[in-house]
Backbone:
């Protein structure tokens, strides 16, 4: 796959909860865009999104669908795995959103 400097492609796994959250997105186009964005995490996932802090330390967050959604994931270097744990709408100023 082009663009990967070292050619390592991560496996993507969604937790049952993340899968449920993705399926819960009613708009098919938005669902497809989210799936495409998740797919992009196969290449250099640790360089995408931003590192989270406090009780989400170790996780990263990336925005999708025009900043409307957040995808929360964890990079497991040893297994070459990206584990997606949450997907949801981002609400400005709401600390309790995804």
Residues:
């Amino acid at each position: 796959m082009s663009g990967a400097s070292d050619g390592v492609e991560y496996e993507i796994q969604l937790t049952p909860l993340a899968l449920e959250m993705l399926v819960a997105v009613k708009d098919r186009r938005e669902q497809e865009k989210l799936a495409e964005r998740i797919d992009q995490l196969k290449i250099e996932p640790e360089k995408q999104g931003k590192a989270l802090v406090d009780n989400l330390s170790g996780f990263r967050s990336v925005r999708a669908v025009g900043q409307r959604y957040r995808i929360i994931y964890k990079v497991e270097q040893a297994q070459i795995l990206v584990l997606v744990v949450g997907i949801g709408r981002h609400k400005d100023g709401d600390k309790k959103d995804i």
In short: The beta strands are 11-14, 50-51, 60-64, 69-76, 81-89. Confidence is low (pLDDT under 50) at residues 1-5.
